[in-house]
Every structure is written in C-alpha cells, then in structure tokens.
C-alpha cells in the first residue's frame, strides 16, 4: 500500500507541476524581446523598406518598374489599409527578413507582375470580399 501512495503522490506532483507551467505566458504574449508594444510609424517603416528595396534592386541588377519607382527621389510610399495597426516589432521582423533574402528570393519581392512579400511583411492580410 505504501508503494501505491508514493506512486499516487508522484502522479499528483507531476500534474501540479505541469499545471503550474501551463500558467506561464508564452513568448508572444509578453511583447517579445522586452519591447513595449508600440504602433509602427508607417512613414518611417516604408522609407526604410524603400531604401532596402532600392539597395537590393541595385545590388542584384534588377530592372523592373517597381525598382525604378523605389529608387526614384519622387517615390510615394503606400499607405497601410484602414484598421491595420502593426507594431514596431512587426516592422523590424519584416526588414530583417528582407535583409536576409538573397537575389533569387528578392526578385519575387520587386518584380512587376505577381509581386509577393515574405510572410513576415504581411501585417494585415487583405480581407476577402
């Protein structure tokens, strides 16, 4: 009987330990990397993205209309869709993903037709009609 009580006590302690661990916040719940949640400044973000896109267009010798636009001093940055409110951290992750992309991957980000963005840069997915 003593062995049974020890076994039951062990099981109970394991269950309690697992329950305590499940109460801890997940990394995404605490803002990530010790940052406070700040709303992304779209003007500053799109200027940094424009610089990164133009740099890659030049480095990789892309000749799309998009590249000509982002490298132009007259470039007008897009606006975020209404109701789209990404955080500063979201913008940082996007810019890091763009920086890490090689020329073959970046080609898809700057081509004129069928342009895509890395998933890290898709802050506010378009709603379906």
Give an account of the 3D structure.
- This protein is mainly alpha-helical.
- Helix content is 51%, strand content 0%.
- α2 packs parallel to α4 and α2 packs across α5.
- The longest helix has 21 residues.
- It starts with a helix and ends in a 19-residue tail after the last helix.
The 3D shape can be described as elongated
What gap, in angstroms, lies between the N and C termini? 66 Å
Taking all Cα atoms into account, the compactness measure Rg is 23 Å
Residue share in β-strands: under 5%
Helical fraction equals 40-55%
Topology order in helix (H) and strand (E) letters: HHHHH
On the 0-100 scale, what is the average pLDDT? 80
Quick overview of this protein structure:
About 6% of the residues have low confidence. This protein is 51% helix and 0% strand.
Features:
129 residues, mainly alpha
List the helices and strands and how they pair.
Layout: H1 2-22, H2 42-59, H3 65-70, H4 88-100, H5 103-110
């Amino acid at each position: 009987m003593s062995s049974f009580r020890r076994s039951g006590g062990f099981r109970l302690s394991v269950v309690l330990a697992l329950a305590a661990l499940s109460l801890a916040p997940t990394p995404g719940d605490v803002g990530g990397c010790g940052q406070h949640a700040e709303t992304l400044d779209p003007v500053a973000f799109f200027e940094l993205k424009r610089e990164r896109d133009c740099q890659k267009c030049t480095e990789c010798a892309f000749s799309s209309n998009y590249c000509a636009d982002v490298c132009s001093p007259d470039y007008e940055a897009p606006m975020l869709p209404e109701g789209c409110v990404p955080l500063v951290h979201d913008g940082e992750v996007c810019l890091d993903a763009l920086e890490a992309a090689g020329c073959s991957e970046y080609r898809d980000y700057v081509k004129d037709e069928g342009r895509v963005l890395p998933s890290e840069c898709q802050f506010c997915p378009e709603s379906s009609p």
